[in-house]
Amino acid sequence: MQVVFLCGGVGSRMSPLPGDKSGLKFLGKTLLEHQVETALAAGLSDLVVVANRQNADALEGILHSYTEARVGLAVQTEPSGMGGALRAARHLVEGEVIVVSPGDVVDASAYQSVLSARERVSATSYLLGTKVGRYFPGGYLVLDSNGEIRRVVEKPGPGAGPSDVVTIVVHLHSDIEALFRHLADER
Asked: What stretch of H or E contains 161?
């Protein structure tokens, strides 16, 4: 199973902090370093990082220190969201994939949650979410009466969320080709 870290976006909500989210230092390490180490602690060592033109060299330098991991780097040439980032890495991914945003700081239990869900329920995708008590500018999950995710509404605006559950970007896709077909249909 591969873990794809989405590091190609621009953290506009991080202003006035400089740089991209994955390169921000927290407790002496970048957010990407924390998340790579979390993935490794969860037993996942086949990693793909999607960078942008501005941060690719810096991220490649960070990744060289993880000799215990198999690491691939893809460059997203223009900001086009998570779907664009995944399309940029298409040549590096296969099989089952966990997609992670290093800006969503999680511990190894997040990985274990989606892996455990995959063992219990047959689906093509598993998304991690959390309830929020007030507006958060993220992806809100539309849930059916069984609690199954029907779709994600991105940044709907204060008071317009379809639920009180937002996605944390630790998404497991058991059929990456089905995901790529879906992404192609969105274009």
From this structure: none
pTM for the whole structure: 0.88
In the chain, what is the straight-line distance between the N-terminal and C-terminal CA atoms, in Å?
Answer: 27
Over residues 102-154, the pLDDT tens digits come to 877 888 899 999 999 999 989 889 999 999 999 988 889 999 998 888 888 98
Strand pairing class (2-6; 46-52)? parallel
Residue type, 163: S
Question: In whole angstroms, what separates CA 105 from the centre of its chain?
Answer: 10
Q: For the stretch 132-166, what's the b/e string if a residue is b when 16 or more beta carbons lie within 10 angstroms of its beta carbon?
A: eeebeebbbbebeeeeebeebbeeeeeeebeebbb
Q: What is the DSSP string of 105-152?
A: ---HHHHHHHHHHHHHS--SEEEEEEE-SS--SSEEEEE-TTS-EEEE
Cβ–Cβ under 8 Å, residues 98 and 114: yes
For residue 22, pLDDT beyond 80: no
